[in-house]
Amino acid sequence: MQLLLDWLHGPWPWYVAGPLIGAMVPLLLWLGSRSFGISQNLEHLCAITQPQRVGVDFFLYDWKNHSWSLAFAGGAVLGGFGGGVLLANPEPVALSAATRELLARWGVGHSAGLAPVELYGLGWRNLLLLVGSGILVGFGTRYASGCTSGHAITGLSTLQPQSLLAVLGIFAGGLAAAHLLLPLLF
Amino acid sequence: MLRRVIPYLLAGVLFGLVLVKSEAASWYRIQEMFHFQAFHMFGIMGSAVLTAFVGVRLMRRLLGRASLEGAPIQLPRKGPGRVRYLAGGAIFGVGWGLIGLCPGPIFALVGTGSPAALLVLAGALHGTWLYGVLHRHLPQ
User: Fold this and answer.
1) Is the CB of residue B2 less than 8 Å away from at least one CB of chain A?
2) Distance of CA A4 to the CA centre of its chain
3) Measuring CA to CA, how many Å separate B118 from each of A127, A160, A169?
């Protein structure tokens, strides 16, 4: 029992996590012919909160038809609580030596937790960075109509060429941010 | 209504749990991936795609062509266009590379009680809003 608890608190290896994430695709299809993805909820949340007098037509649809998707996102929040609070890992993320060197070069700390306080700690610069990056994520995933779940996993596994384009774009953008933009911040 | 969404809620719980416990929701892991310094994230993505590919075929063979809710199972189809996928993907990718969170991990990290994740979510909702206002003027 103690062994199981220790294992659950520790980080889960890729060969456990990947298949569980991938299994979402057939599971959601089997449950109700739903396409695995989560970023459309950003659109639903806008549709729910849009005041009537604003009426941007993009958000004028019956979001109640998508309650399954909102429930899935709500579940992900609960799961995050389970994984990050109830089963929190007391150790720092077990990074490769090369990444630890990179962090040292950038002057970014590496203690327990999923993200460094240098970026997630609240301050004016980080506020801009957090909200600004969020804007890019929200705008980009809607423009591409999908995120890592909908394109990289659902789209690639069902052999859709549009998703391959999206994944190429996502990776190019991520490389540019990690190699060109982030070094400017540190 | 509530009963109908419970299976999706449970699936979401598992998804959020896995995202946090596998550290796919960690800025550190995302940097490690974009600098090609460990196999971990590539292993998650690769085995997820493979499992989904095999899983969909197995499910159709073993469980038939109708979903539990009765509707025929249809594979999702993405709409036409090229620019939107490349450009939208790249814009999203820049945000992901900077802050280390894609939409699934945003929701999961909100659940861990991270104020930073709430700010990213607030930004993402504004970005979505901006897209809703501008979408007619964007190249497809």
Assistant:
1) no
2) 27
3) 11, 32, 26
Please write the tens of the pLDDT for every residue from B17-34: 999 999 999 999 999 999
CA distance A48 to A171: 31
Interface membership of A106 toward B (CB under 8 Å)? no
Side chain identity at residue B116, one-letter code: A
DSSP reduced 3-state for B72: strand
Query: What is the C-alpha to C-alpha distance for residues A167 and B57, in angstroms, rounded to an integer?
Result: 23
In the predicted structure, residue B76 carries a pLDDT above the cut 90? no
**What mean pLDDT, rounded, does chain B reach?**
95
Can you tell me the mean pLDDT for B87-99? 98
Point out the residue among A25, A93, A130 whose CB comes nearest to the CB of B56: A25
If you ran DSSP here, which 8-state letter would residue A116 be given?
A: -
Q: What is the DSSP letter of A20?
A: H
Q: Which of B45, B90, B133 sits opposite A172 (nearest CB)?
A: B90
Cβ contact, residue pair A173, B12, below 8 Å = no
Query: Which has the closest alpha carbon to A40: B62, B132, B14, B109?
Result: B132
Global ipTM: 0.96
Q: What is the percent of chain A with per-residue pLDDT over 70, rounded to a whole number?
A: 100
